[in-house]
Specification:
The chain is of the alpha/beta class. It folds into three domains: about 1-55, N-terminal domain of TfIIb, CATH 2.20.25; about 60-125 and about 255-365, Rossmann fold (3-Layer(aba) Sandwich), CATH 3.40.50.740; about 140-250, Dimethylsulfoxide Reductase, domain 2. The chain is built from 15 helices and 18 strands. The chain has helices at about 45-55, 75-85, 105-115, 140-145, 155-160, 160-170, 185-190, 200-205, 210, 230-240, 255-260, 265-275, 290, 295-300, 360-365, and strands at about 1-5, 15-20, 25-30, 60-65, 70, 95, 120-125, 150, 175-180, 195, 220-225, 245-250, 265, 280-285, 305-310, 320-325, 335, 345. The strands form four sheets. The protein has an eight-stranded mixed beta sheet with strand order 5-4-16-15-14-6-7-13. The protein has a five-stranded parallel beta sheet with strand order 10-9-8-11-12, sandwiched between helices. The radius of gyration is 21 Å and the shape is globular. About 45% of the residues are buried.
Length: about 375
């Protein structure tokens, strides 16, 4: 049995995690008490991430044949994809990634697109734009002693390790205000004042004075969801007007880092990209989760070819022409940049199955032709 250090891939907080390995397989987790971000605490999402990926993992490419996905060998799969890409104009090809890839993979994709002349490429960032570090908190300890915290979204459920910091701040006397859609939530229960809202955009357009009066240079605005990218600009304006810090908590482990290399896509950008191409390559991104599978399936049906590169099989695959497995986070090394802009390196925990091509190898094979 071996215990190896890594970075939790379940969200963008960047917690350290120890993975328990037996016979080149991750079988559990163990507290990583020396990690400065989470000090040995991991949420249930992090503890169970390896189980989810293990359950849905696969090793052989799949090809659509008569609306049924069948196993297909690697060489023929990559060769077929290469022929498809070569037969279309670069403006007819689109690439959509998520923040579930490393900085090194994002750099590679950027260079691949440039070499092939593909301009329709981006990362779906759940409506967050590229973020400057100027107004970000410098470390999570700033939350512990902030006199006032304003929260949008249910941070305690979606990002429990940030929730832990908020609870510490509350114990230290911090005043907590929050806003969300639900009647009640764990975050609302832990707030001194809760605003039930029907729209983040409308709420920001008519931002309550009672919140603005509490904001100052030592306070922090924390948020993990936006309705559109203009919402971020509104939060930045509120922050600038009151000299307060912000903490945008992004969904994927490397959303922040991927933004540095690939254009960010909000929902409208994503729809425009899909509507504007004939061939689509999707990388580690279940875009059905963003719109609902029925809506996105109706758009995918209009495309000529769809290739999906993924760590684990999604629930819906009927419209994909090719589905290719790629290594999971535990099977590779690289860097991830967390939600406060701090890059952390991690090493391979288990040997990847040599029959599975990496993202770099797949696209390098395409570049050969």
């Amino acid at each position: 049995m071996l215990i190896k250090h890594s970075i939790c891939p379940s969200c963008s907080v960047g917690c350290g995690i120890n993975l328990i390995c037996i016979d080149n397989e991750v079988v559990g987790t163990y507290p990583y008490k020396k990690h400065p971000i989470n000090e040995g605490k991991n949420c249930s999402n992090g503890k169970n991430y390896y189980k989810i990926n293990k359950k849905n993992s696969f090793k052989t490419p799949l090809k659509n044949s008569g609306n049924k996905l069948i196993e297909f060998d690697w060489d023929r799969t990559v060769g077929s994809i290469s022929e498809i890409i070569s037969s279309y104009h670069s403006d007819e090809i689109g690439i959509i990634s998520s923040g579930k890839i490393t900085n090194e993979e994002a750099t590679f994709l950027k260079n691949f697109a440039k070499k092939k002349g593909i301009r329709k490429i981006g990362v779906y960032s759940h409506n967050f734009p590229k973020i400057s570090t100027e107004k970000l908190i410098s470390n999570y300890d700033e939350l512990n002693n902030a006199p006032f915290l304003f929260i949008i979204g249910d941070i305690f459920v979606k990002n429990p390790l940030i929730g832990r910091r908020i609870a510490i701040a509350s114990d230290n006397g911090s005043k907590i205000f929050s806003a969300d859609y639900s009647d009640t939530s764990i975050t609302s229960i832990n707030s001194d004042n809760y605003f039930k809202i029907s729209s983040i955009t409308e709420f920001l357009n008519n931002f309550p004075k009672e919140i603005e009066n509490e904001l100052n240079k030592d306070s922090v605005i924390i948020f993990n969801q936006l309705e559109d990218k203009e919402d971020f600009e509104k939060i930045e304006k509120i922050s600038n007007n009151n000299d307060s810090k912000i903490l945008p908590v992004l969904s994927d482990p490397n959303s922040y880092g991927t933004m540095e290399y690939l254009p960010t896509l909000d929902k409208n950008d994503l729809i425009d990209l899909i509507d504007g191409v004939k061939v689509l390559i999707i990388i580690n991104s279940d875009i059905g989760d963003y719109f609902g599978h029925a809506e996105i399936n109706s758009k995918l049906k209009k495309l000529d070819e769809i290739m999906f590169l993924t760590e684990s099989l999604p629930e819906y695959m009927s419209n994909f022409d090719y589905v290719l497995p790629i290594p999971q986070m535990s099977e590779k090394s690289g860097t991830l940049t967390n939600t406060i802009g701090k890059s952390q390196s991690f090493e391979k925990v288990v040997r990847k199955d040599e029959s599975v091509f990496s993202i770099e190898k797949i696209f390098n094979e395409i570049l050969k032709d």
